[in-house]
Specification:
The structure holds two protein chains of two kinds. Chain A is mainly alpha-helical. Chain A contains 17 helices and three strands. Chain A has one domain. In chain A, strands 1-2-3 form a three-stranded antiparallel beta sheet. In chain B, strands 6-7-8-3-9-10 form a six-stranded mixed beta sheet, sandwiched between helices. A four-stranded antiparallel beta sheet of chain B has the order 2-1-4-5. Chains A and B meet through helix 1 and helix 7 of A and helix 2, strand 6 and helix 3 of B.
Amino acid sequence: MIRKTINKELKELFRDGRVRTSLLIVLLLLGIAVWISSQQYQKTNADYAAAKVSEREVWDNQGEKNPHSAAHYGTYAFKPKYPLSLVDQGVDKYVGTSIFLEAHKRNEAQFSAATDQTGLARFGDLTPDFILLFIIPLLIVLLGYNAFTKERELGTHALIKSSGAKGWKIVLGKWTALFLPVLTITVVLLLLAGLVLSNLQDYGVFQWNSLLVLGLVYLLYYAVFTNLVLWVSQWTKRSGISLVISLSLWIIACLAAPKAASNIAEARHPYPTRQEFAANVLKDKDAGIDGHNPWSKEAKLLEEQVLAEYEVDSLQQLPFNFSAYLAQKGEEHEAEVYFKHYNYLKEQYENQSGTYRSLALLSPFLPARFLSMAIAQTDYATHWDFSDAAENYRIATQEFLNNNTAQNTRYGEIGYKATAAFWQELPPFDYNPPELGQILKNNRSNFGILGLWAVFSFGLLFFTTKKNNDVTI
Amino acid sequence: MIITNNLTKKYGDFTALDHLELRVKEGEIYCLLGANGAGKTTTINLLLGFIQPSSGSAFINQLDVQENLLETKRFLAYIPENLMLYPSLSAVENLDYFSGIGGKNLNKTQLEEFLEEAGLQSDAFHKRISSFSKGMRQKVGIAIALAKDAKVLLLDEPTSGLDPKASNEFGHLLQKLRAKGVATLMATHDLFRAKEVATHIGIMKDGQLKQQFVADAISLSQLEKAYLDTMEYKTIAS
């Protein structure tokens, strides 16, 4: 009975010219989106690989140079595009691709793709995640809004009701017939992405299990929409009304709720402005050791402590260069200040994410969006992780440079230069993003909320069928 | 096969069906005559379990309809006044679906045989229903009943809007089903067709079964007079 209903529904769907056209358009859009994304992905990562090699060559070939000059000269930490960004570009476009690492200062990522675009960027990009998160749910609405109402309008409901068919079997048949085209599109897209990615061995480490989990998230998201659309069609009397209600649900879930959630999260947990942030950092930096100012109160206090610790009378008697030691202590103080202020930003981000999660009960789009970006490693959490890794590398680099000066010079000695081979001793910046297991652990609440949506929507469909005394039409 | 005991349906103060006592046995065709609002369709809807009775009970194949909503439907087939099928599917596909959800899985040859038995021309088997006339759709409806091996057939104005030839063919199909032992209850306005096909005829008015006849025991003119008298119409001659 279920199979008969699936066959019948699919025949009806595919014999409808409007449905064929809609499916063709979606497949065409998906093909274009995957092609554009794969071109961007390859270009960005080719640029990334070239920039990484070139910057390291510049660092390695500085020649004889004072380490602190090298610290100010700085270097870059580059962020690669991760394989699944081909499917979901997340916030990558807005957060920058490289961080300049220099002495005394933690910089933010710069050179985001969005800054290179004109105002036309406001119209958005055609990306696979746009199709997967916005267009396919819309397709579910367009394919399924009249699943039950058409039976009433056509008059076939009377024959179905008189056939003795169990309501849940008809519902399950219709559900499967609506879900199958969506399942096919999703599987085709993800397979396509997987094949493209597994043939790009040079860039990132592509894992099929990540793609599989990503696919499952999307399918769960589509199951929720399928349930809601069929539920609406079940209790409304006319197709027109069903379409309007289903479209309203789509607008609320996919367009209004994310924007409202964003506004509410920003209002409840605002980020400081750039000026406020810079002023707060400067204030805290001024309250501690400045590596370039040996006459400050804090530097003098450190000097006294060091002399007492080494039981010597003058800085010249120390077994290392106090100036480099001071510079390192200054770095450590500044690193603490940045740590404190960036942690505040991170806390605000966590608070905003928490607000988002609590509002995710209003829309299945929100947990699906978060999960998709997280698994694709294009979310803010991954960016924060990269930014923290770059900062740790910066701190380690400064320590590496300051220690060299401290160990190889004496206080008051000027004109020291490290050897040309010294720079190569600094290990390269090598960032590994969080593994899938860690990502899933960090996103348990999003999985929970999406799961709740699935249970809730299946429940709605089930209880409406039961309420109709198992005669659903 | 079909039994109603004091079957009553009320909508507020309005009584749509008033203590109906009806018996249709195996191989009988019972035609219910009556004007619009007489209670014919209400009777059929109650037998189908589409609506609940206010009091009384209805039985199909000895099973109480209200207590066995799904089970009773295994034994019956229903053809409404305007039998609607899926326009984008062919006759064979429609029959395959409706017999399938009724629990019968038939192969293509069997499906075609049922359509043939129902009188549909073979060149129409694989044409989409959207191109079918009402008469052709009714034949597919009969094929559904045949495929389902229904013991009870409920018909609601099945010949309304059919041309005389199609109506005549439909009558023959009912006789075929009767010969198979199917108990048929048909609501109709068509006195002539009722007299032609029925074994028993009942006249309803205001939700009540006013008169019953054995069809063979009454002529068409006597039936017409009885009908008009029941309806309290005056003939042109009088």
